Amino acid sequence: MVRSSFRGEVSPGLWRREAGTVVRRAGALPERAPDSGAVVADFRIVPAPTEWAQHAHRLHELVWVRGGTLTSRVGDRVFTVFEGHGLWMPAGVVHAGRATEGARFHSAFFAPDRTPFAFGEPKAIAMPPLLVSLLTHLSRTDLAEDARLRAEAVVFDVIEPSEHELALRLPGDPRIDAIAEALLDDPADSRSLEEWARELGTSDRTITRAFRQSTGLSFAQWRQMLRVHRAMMLLSDGFDVMSVSEHLGYAQPSSFIAAFRRVMGTTPGAFSGAVTASGDVRNPVSGGENAGLSA
Predict the structure, then answer these.
(1) How far apart are CA 188 and CA 149, in angstroms?
(2) Minimal CA–CA distance to 220: which of 252, 263, 254, 253?
(3) Whether the Cβ atoms of residue 40 and residue 59 lie closer than 8 Å to each other
(4) Of the ranges 39-43, 131-135, 166-170, which is most confident?
């Protein structure tokens, strides 16, 4: 399905909220792991674009999606999770999230005292088929204790950080926060460095220095990265490449395709096709929807 409407209201700290978005508070979350083992795994299908308010978990959480994307805001960073990658959220870290319509949303919770490794901050995790299969296996409720412990031991062995950068760092600098918020609200905002400097009553050198110091990127690089994060969500929501290109302020689709390829290593069309194909994969273990767990 190709969509063509971008109308919506502002969703503070993330992106403009599309019409029809469901806004949820954190649902019923596991307070502890099962009596045997360390991992509680489950999944659900997100029937509409869904946002979760800020919340935290007592357990570590690993989330990943099939057939869509997940965006999570953690402090001054926005993470975008897509096919082949997951996001590790340490216990106690406050975060908010958004999943695109139709995404198969998977989550696994890890008991901190039974998990033989620790990531002290949110971390992109590689999700190879073996890890996905193991966590799908652990979502079963009829596993014997020895089978569960064997599967968990392999999970602990194969979990490792992804080499792909999934995070967009927000400046958190009063000199340029207005620029960041304007672009989050409207990524097509094409005001130049000089125009922003005049509007904010500062110099383009000050803006350039502030972006470098707070994000590690130039203004142009940061805006390009933001647009690519937004593009992943829109492509997963079913928008075609030309519509996304126009929405993000590119004069020509070819410019958008080149920018997307520079960041992602693939074209937006190929990315969209991979998301669509992954959404057709059925979970061989659990066939129902679980709306209780939270992002």
Answers:
(1) 50
(2) 263
(3) yes
(4) 131-135
Residue 138 φ/ψ, nearest 5 degrees: -75, -10
* Residues 171/212, Cβ–Cβ less than 8 Å: no
Q: Measured between alpha carbons, how far is 52 from 17 in angstroms, rounded to an integer? A: 12
Query: pTM to 2 decimals?
Result: 0.80
pLDDT at 196 over 60: yes
**The predicted structure's pLDDT at residue 254:** 95
Give the chain's radius of gyration (CA, Å).
Answer: 20
CB-side exposure of 151: number of CA atoms within 13 Å?
23
Rounded mean pLDDT of the chain? 83
Closest CA to 182 of 167, 164, 195: 195
Distance CA 245, CA 255 (A): 8
| Distance set, CA 85 to CA 35, 65, 166, 255, 288 (Å) | 29, 8, 9, 26, 23
**Sheet containing 60-66: order of strands:** 39-45, 104-110, 60-66, 85-89, 123-126
Q: What is the pLDDT of residues 199-244, one digit of tens each?
A: 999 999 999 999 999 999 999 999 999 999 999 988 987 889 999 9
CA distance 177 to 184: 11
Three-class SS state of 101: coil
The count of other CB atoms within 10 Å of the CB of residue 97 is: 26
Q: Do residues 285 and 140 touch, judged by C-beta distance below 8 A?
A: yes
